[in-house]
Structure formats: structure tokens, C-alpha cells
Amino acid sequence: MDSERGTVRSAQAGVTNAPPDRARLPRSRRPVGEPALPGSSSPWILMYHSVAVEKEDPYQLTVSPERFAEQIAWLHRRGQRGVSVRELMRARAHGRDDKLVGLTFDDGYADFARYAVPILQAYGFTATAYVVADLLGQDNGWDTEGPRKKLLTVEEVTELASAGWEIGSHGLGHQALPGLPAEALAVQTRESRRLLEEVVGGPVTGFCYPYGAVDLPAAAAVRDAGYDYACAIAHSPLTGRYALPRCYVGDRDGAWRLRAKKGRHRLRDAVTELKRSRRDRPGGERAVAERRP
To answer: Is the pLDDT of residue 125 over 80?
Structure first.
């Protein structure tokens, strides 16, 4: 396969009146660490990558279709419904997310459409696929020791978006954002969003940090690029709308492990909020830092 076939940039030849590469976007007034309203706790979001059968899986990113079906059935039996993060955030804003759990799929593997989507549809679930804008139709070359996995093509991403699946940005080339200069951060966040919006024919409002790596400049760049939210992995001082923590799900995770992981998520939420309250109260770390000359 030609290395450029199926990528966003190769598809641009047929796109007219494309917006400029670096369109100016209004800066958001939202603080980077704004809580995922309402309430102080973060929503429960599960993080998947690949749903397939692999003999070798050194990064433990693959869940077999059989195990995935068991995990989704477990959520259904508990009266929970898996949804995209876009839908989860909208429901949460109105206090209607009690029975919802976010389902996310990083990297945009082609097996999402082949294996995950039919299982999710059987239960009336939805999900978010975070795709790498410059690598559509190629493979996961960044995983040097893992098996080569095909990524969704431009056509497949377009079809998924048309069918109602949320498509989010995973950057341009699966590059970690922390440490990048401001101009590079702007390109990674804004350009990937622009390219994907051409593909899906609508707004792309969600971002997912490659490798889950985020720092304050990266989160600010995502916010300023006009995204509504961003997914990280771990709880941190940045936990909030632009650094939503997620729960890794692997092939070993059955019912009791998922139940334990949900409890651990709630515990980490509580610890994060306790640290945040101590930092923000009078005499806390933030107040002390602001008084320093």
C-alpha cells in the first residue's frame, strides 16, 4: 500500500475552500483545571486501544473480541450504558450521567470498526475513537516492539462519524506533547482538529493526549485550540475538563477487576480533590506561591 493512501493530507486534493493551516481561534476563558461539571469527581471513562486477536502483545494494548464482549455485557448487566465522551460530558452538565460510562479507543485502529462497533451496537452503546490525523490508513509505527496494526482510513473515519460515532483528535503523528515549544503545540492541536473536521464534515470537540502525557502548556494549547475537553490517563494536579483521567482496560480484566478499578478511580478522585482543596485554601501552596516576590 502506498504510504500516503488513505491519509488526510492525500484526501485534501479533493477538498476546496479549506481553512488556512493556522486559523486563529479565540482563546477560551476556561481554566485548564476546570472540574468536569457538575460536582468535584471526574466521570468514569474506560480506555481501550485495540480489539483483536494477537499472539504477541508486549504493550498489553489488545483485548480479544470475546473478552471485550464480556466486559460490555458486564456493564449492561449493571444497568450502565457506554457512551462517547462527548455524550458523557453533555449529560454530566445536566446531572444526567449517573448510569453512563465513557468508552474510548486510542490510536484509531481499524479493528475498532471490525470488532468493537458491532458489539457496542448490540447493546445500544456508543464510544469515542481518537485518531492520529496524519496517519490514517497507515499503521502504528510508533509501537516499535509491537505487532503492526492497521489504522482506520479516511473513508472509514468518515463512515463512522456519519453513523454517529464520535471522532476525536490524537494529535498529528502520535507525538507526546509535554516539552514541545508553543508553536509546535499549536500545530499539533489546531492542525489535527482542522484536518479531522474536513474528514468528518463537522466539529471535532475532543482531544486525547498521545501516551496520556500532559503538562500545563499542553493542556492550555488544547483549550486554546477550541476543544471542549481532553482525555489524559492518570489523576494529577491538572485533573479536570482538559485532563480527564481514564481507567486502562486490558484482556485480563473480568468483572471483579473492573469493579475494583472503578473503586480505585473513586479513591483517586477523592485524593486528588483533597490535594486540590489544600492547595487552594488560604495559606495553601497556591496562596504561598502568589505571595512570593
So the answer is: yes
Gap between the Cα atoms of 153 and 120, Å rounded: 20
Mean pLDDT, rounded, for 141-166? 97
Least confident of 31-35, 199-203, 265-269: 31-35
pLDDT at 276: 86
Domain 36-253: CATH superfamily is Glycoside hydrolase/deacetylase (3.20.20.370)
* Mean per-residue pLDDT, 71-75: 98
Domain edges within the chain: 36-253
The pLDDT assigned to 40 comes to 52
DSSP string computed for the chain = --TTTT-HHHHGGG--SPPPTT---PPP-S-TT--SSSSSSPPPEEEE-EES--S--TT--EE-HHHHHHHHHHHHHTT-EEE-HHHHHHHHHTT--TTEEEEEEEE-BTHIIIIIHHHHHHTT---EEEE-GGGTTSB-TT-TTSPP-BBPPHHHHHHHHHTT-EEEE--SSS---TT--HHHHHIIIIIHHHHHHHHHTS---EEE-GGG---HHHHHHHHHTT-SEEE-SS--TT-BTTBB--EE--TT--HHHHHHHHHHHHHHHHHHHHHHHHHHSTTSHHHHHHH--
**pLDDT, position 280:** 75
